[in-house]
Amino acid sequence: MITDIQSHDDDQIRLFLNHEQFGILPTDFILKFGLRVGLNISHDTIVKLLQAEEVMRAKNFAINLLHEKKIHTKPEFEKELRRKGFSQEGISASIEDLERTGLIK
After folding, report:
1. Are residues 104 and 54 in the same domain?
2. What are 40-94's pLDDT values in tens digits?
3. Is 58 in contact with 91 (CB distance < 8 Å)?
4. DSSP type of residue 73
5. Are residues 53 and 93 in the same domain?
6. Do residues 17 and 41 lie in contact, with contact meaning Cβ atoms separated by under 8 Å?
7. 67: helix, coil or strand?
8. What is the dihedral sign for C-alpha 52, 56, 61, 65?
9. Helix, strand, coil: what percent of the chain each, to 5?
């Protein structure tokens, strides 16, 4: 059960499950997943939260690579994201987002 949601910074929250901190998540996850204090959260929703959070981290890492290393191709991004330890699902989803927005070729 969600027992608390605290502001962490401008765009992140701390989510507490059964009075234990679950993690720091993007604020927009509140609406995306319908999070609220008192909600009994299912195992499936927890898995989806973790997957979505990893995709967001992978995408942010890839965007930083665009600026720092001037990487612009899909194979280069896949290699760097894999080296950083992201799952194949996180890599694929983040690359799809970046391709869709035209940030990588």
Report:
1. yes
2. 999 999 999 999 999 989 988 988 888 887 777 889 889 999 999 999 999 999 8
3. yes
4. S
5. yes
6. yes
7. helix
8. positive
9. 50, 20, 30
**Domain span at residue 5?**
1-41
Total tally of structural domains belonging to the chain: 2
Selection from 63, 70, 71, 47 nearest residue 98 by Cα = 63
**What's the one-letter identity of residue 3?**
T
Q: Is 70 left (phi over 0), alpha (psi -120 to 50) or beta?
A: left
Q: What is the pLDDT of residues 12-38, one digit of tens each?
A: 999 999 999 999 999 999 999 999 999
* CATH number of the domain encompassing residue 90: 1.10.10
Question: Whole-model pTM?
Answer: 0.80
C-alpha dihedral sign at 19, 40, 4, 7? positive
Tokens of 71: 């990487």
Tell me: do 15 and 56 sit in the same domain.
no
